[in-house]
């Protein structure tokens, strides 16, 4: 027996992106159904942002105390692993979504649990755990917010060793004795930092020549040096050839291209080698679209060629970050409401209906020690785009607020300046606790604030934000 319902908008995927789309359209006077096959709140709440940062926070706090003479004397023991894991569990509500489901109901959104597939124009069929079907018809729009999932590369035997993906790495109940991390991007570096601090012997295998390949080179170099200083074995140029289990051990065969292959042994292996869109088996073929890959969307997140369908968040591949998914949700929700009510949708740059920050002003933080906080273009991307630019660097340790923050503070601030318009294209901070410096850079980049104007944004003394003045002085020469 099939239950049939009609809503103005059907949102598939109840992660933070889907929750925000549904909330915005309901606030705009439309009705909405929110469909979820797993936990309401999605990846960020249970297997990504929240648990990973909870795992890292204790290590950050200890490092901060040890970095200040006088305070360091108070650090007389080691991190309590079980207490850290228990605190992590508290931030995931022990993987219960009762609280978030209550929020959905309170927001006036109907929650439908089950696996969803498109079934032609504006129709979504949801199959519940008991096999019952619910057919949801959308009067105005369907928003696909199904996100992304870990990609496991086609390495011989890798799937057979039951590897961790980021989900298992952030939710593990015990510290692995030896952890082999495949991939030196954001997830690989953060999880190497976390589990090493909690007692695991960690090896990082990165195929490229630098960690954090998409960041400024100084960032990857600084994180690699810090990981090595913490006892992590960081292997660059390491191509994984195969994996196998021998009893309780995982054996990973690696080649650096110069000598014979080497075997790395561990108790667990984490695959942190990228993501792929969750677009397989959701019925895209029923509306004339390919069944795999990221969705091609316009500036209002509308899927090209299918005007009633929206692809919001990781599913479109534009910026795979929680905060950018929520940003896109605000833009898509506003556009859906406008179109449903007959209002004009302005698709010019920086209008309330379009997503442009997810290409020009994307902020991100890597919560290693040192942290890497960045927004906008790196110098390499600015060069690739052909934009006239100049790179300005300043050592963060030379700022009075930094030396007060931590003894022997080391870090770097990098600004990529458009030399024709004299505005910032991108900013990167590398150093302890630089995440809190980032939003001022986001405002400057997204607002295209002229450098001449930034001279009048006076940083308080003595704070780390004084680095802004030093960057401007360096720019002026």
UniProtKB/TrEMBL annotation:
Presence of keyword Lyase: no
Location of the Pyridine nucleotide-disulphide oxidoreductase dimerisation domain: 362-468
Residues the entry annotates as binding FAD: 53, 146-148, 314
Keywords: FAD, Flavoprotein, NAD, Nucleotide-binding
Manner of cofactor binding, per the entry note: Binds 1 FAD per subunit.
Binding site for NAD(+): 183-190, 206, 274
Cystine crosslinks: 44-49
One Pfam family per UniProt: Pyr_redox_dim
Keyword Glycoprotein: no
First and last residue of the signal peptide: none
Gene3D superfamilies on file: 3.30.390.30, FAD/NAD(P)-binding domain (3.50.50.60)
Domain FAD/NAD(P)-binding: 7-324
Necessary cofactors: FAD
Domain of life: Bacteria
GO BP annotations listed: 2-oxoglutarate metabolic process
GO-annotated molecular function: dihydrolipoyl dehydrogenase (NADH) activity; flavin adenine dinucleotide binding
Family, similarity comment: Belongs to the class-I pyridine nucleotide-disulfide oxidoreductase family.
This protein's name: Dihydrolipoamide dehydrogenase
The organism of origin for this protein: Trujillonella endophytica
